[in-house]
Amino acid sequence: MEKKPHLEGFVVLDDIRGLLLKSSATLHALYKGHLALETIEKYVFESYALLDASSEIKIYLPSLAERFSKDRLKALLKSTNPETYGALDVLFVCVHNSGRSQMAAGFMSKLGGDKVIVRSAGSAPRESISPTVIEVMSELGIDITDEFPKPLTDEVVRASDAVITMGCGDACPVYPGKRYEDWVLEDPAGQGIESVRVIRDEIKKRVETLLNELLA
Fold first, then answer.
1. CATH number for the domain including 184?
2. pLDDT in tens, 67-97
3. Catalytic one among 27, 61, 94, 156?
């Protein structure tokens, strides 16, 4: 298959390439009139490459790349035209995006509903969310089994009204006019379920406080 100039640098197998081009066409239909097909293809192939670099599980990557790209493109549109988007954007970041940031995003999505657009990311994402984290969240009726660790990208930071870090340090770019907080929380990785429940409950309290302040 002939390589298009704007996709140079993305080396993928032909069957994967076909799936990514199909995803690009699907997203172009969604964002037609706002983003060019070439831009969407670039984001889809780049998203696949970012996920491929951080995950050992390859079978689902094309579909995850489409979901990741859709979220990034939505953030791109808001960052370039913020006055057309009314909802608050909140981004939670931790190193691996497999524990603390996923719990915080789960609580914010549940409590904020359609008033808040919630994203999470990691400065060095793992291949999957901690099973213990999934279990303790399910105890409170929050299902995060469909979520997956995602790399931190510039456009989601630009689109966010509040950026909450949980141990990524200076990995997050800083832009004026945004609210930044660093929550000092224990990493649930490798801890027993009782300890993870304590971390979960502390995150819930902080999310409730943050949401009340943002909506006020």
1. 3.40.50.2300
2. 999 999 999 999 887 766 767 999 999 999 9
3. 94
